[in-house]
Task: inverse folding
């Protein structure tokens, strides 16, 4: 089975920056599980199923074969990772503010399950400005989001903001 | 007509820190358009008209003649700037956290319209602690906000919190 | 009466990191007032009375005798401190993002009442990841929060998330 | 004569990131003076003349016509700017650490000469990792620096590290 | 004897920002010891005696009576504080970069002597740009440093840079 | 042979924080090469051989069997990694300032050799204040460094500062 890692996020929706991390983490681990983490106390733009499907389309379009996509609702990430026998949690860092928050989460996760390591990859410089929120804001204002999200998801996202 | 710059913000309400930037950017460009950007998905304290009027009063009280005040609702800032033939977008920086967010916005705006430059000015040290939220919080708790907002708007803002 | 300091916060609920600051600030000042600050415009998880009571239980369980617990609703912190004849406001710092926000608040408070000093203590490294939100998130997902909050409050907090 | 700005730096040597700022600032001002600032108390890799010449070559190779190159040794930047009747000092920002230092310098310069504004431009994301030191370190270790410095200066820099 | 605090630094030379902290910490503690810490492995501009004398002049000129000035050469700060029966070490914070370094030092000092607390005060906004290095750089370039250092030390510092 | 990673540093000397990263990275990869990187343009406290030996002692004392120790003098890290067929470069992050520098190095290394990934692990909170410089400063001032460096190296380091 080899070494497994989990890459969690809300992916609401997946951006080109997320996909960059998926490709690079996928090259390092035998199996990468992209995990759509649903927080029932927060509103989202896309449903869990839509988010999973968009990630699957992007992964499939790029011919990546060791990537699985799953979702979790209101469960502890480290418990999920334990269950999947994952050795590592993958997080992408873009900026100082990411760093602080992710540092806190890594420390708390290590406290909860010391045997699971949090591993950070740097987002490519060209995507350092990118977030799901910014993609949605531009789409809402009818700006051009091509290049900011995987090509196969472009229509799906734009359709959400048409009326 | 000369060189035009746009200084966007929510200005809910304009603070002495905003006004400091208006005065300094106004001295650098032939025309400065202060742009009240309305985001229909967020709640605001003052209406668009009230915000525009407060900026106009402050600009008029200080005898600044090359400042225009306008508003935009749910449109892309760079499209507005393009339409106004503005060469630059002005942003004020106060602290590291401003820097990160504004850096991201500058990169995304450059991607959308590379010909429009984002130009950053540092807020004066004496206003580095100031934001519209802090002004409103102090006014709500009946604290003294004189000096924190342009003098001509003082009554208008205090009135909002009286009952 | 000696020197008095006020340690304000929302304490929703008190964490082991807060309690670490209480113990250390209590050792430096003759009287330390832990002040539950209620902001009527924000939702909270625990009521003002529950928060005050949890702090009192923790203080009592550790035999600290120069700590008072009080609450304030929609009043200016510096006015409260003035009334209590406090010379200092205590704040705990964990990370860069705390620093920026607290720096702004210290500057505004100095402007409102220059005679009251804001004093910062560093949270112990082992609690640097800890916040009330993280405690609640873990409790909500049924994770183990022992060690993250004062032992005497453990049941009270867990009970809130059981159904 | 139009509006003049000064872009100071040690440019030891000029990188592609510096040149990106030169091009963009040159598009905003009528005249841009690129100023090689020599600090006699610090060691440098290239002589003042070599640094000026490399900038001139790069500017010439790109056909920029409103750029002047000058140098200053142990003089106050704001005095130079005043003498040149410059209205603005241009600085490029790459990262949070730049921001803090440049913020301090902008505040001190405003105190020395309030009529000269410091204007910040964001370095392009693709050059955010780039500095003169990193270029020199890679060249010293015989790595490939093409793309990191203006093409016309490539040989000159590599030659410095050959023996 | 009351509560004693130590305010350590290199004070090479004392700036108006340092003096601001001395005044404010002096108002909070019964005795404040300003400690010139000499690091024999680093070069300095002013001798230990000159630095001590400049602080004494400034303290005397402002009529502060509970301030002592001392120096230490190559000794651990916490050992000095212990010997003086000080309860607290005072540090001034200006910016995020100060914060990180001082946080590390506070943690290491707590490890060495847990009974001594490090207490942070925020430097006034108007001095947030100020450091001994910047004062010296401006003096070296013959700029005006009045207001940046205590008035009584002005001549002494300028004299150092005249020839 | 399995997956190989390289953990580079100056290790002058190895601290408990470094060793924490070695243990955790060693658990994730089949082989971890700890690489003492010598920069001939910088002075060091311990010789290359001493540094390598101290790491070997610490690794041996903890019974880690998949760790190799090597050194490189004035060579590009990515070239070494390529030669060793390493898939990843390991870096430990402690604080925001680490983050910025390491982000820049990761971007430049990706540019030089895109097939080698930089992987970041968070240093344990208890070691977040620790660096080789701080260890040496405390040892120089005759403070207690036990716990700050691997136990087996304690005497070696203390001996360096005795006379």
Result:
């Amino acid at each position: 089975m080899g070494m497994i890692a989990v890459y969690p996020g809300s992916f609401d929706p997946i951006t080109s920056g997320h996909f960059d991390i998926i490709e690079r983490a996928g090259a390092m681990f035998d199996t990468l599980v992209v995990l759509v983490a649903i927080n029932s106390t927060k509103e989202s733009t896309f449903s869990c199923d839509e988010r999973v499907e968009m990630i699957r389309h992007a992964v499939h379009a790029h011919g990546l074969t060791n990537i699985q996509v799953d979702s979790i609702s209101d469960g502890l990430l480290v418990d999920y990772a334990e269950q999947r026998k994952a050795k590592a949690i993958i997080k992408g860092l873009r900026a100082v503010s990411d760093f602080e928050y992710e540092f806190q989460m890594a420390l708390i996760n290590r406290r909860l399950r010391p045997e699971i390591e949090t591993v950070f990859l740097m987002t490519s410089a060209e995507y350092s400005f990118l977030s799901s929120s910014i993609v949605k804001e531009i789409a809402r204002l009818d700006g051009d989001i091509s290049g900011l999200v995987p090509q196969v998801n472009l229509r799906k996202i734009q359709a959400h903001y048409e009326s």
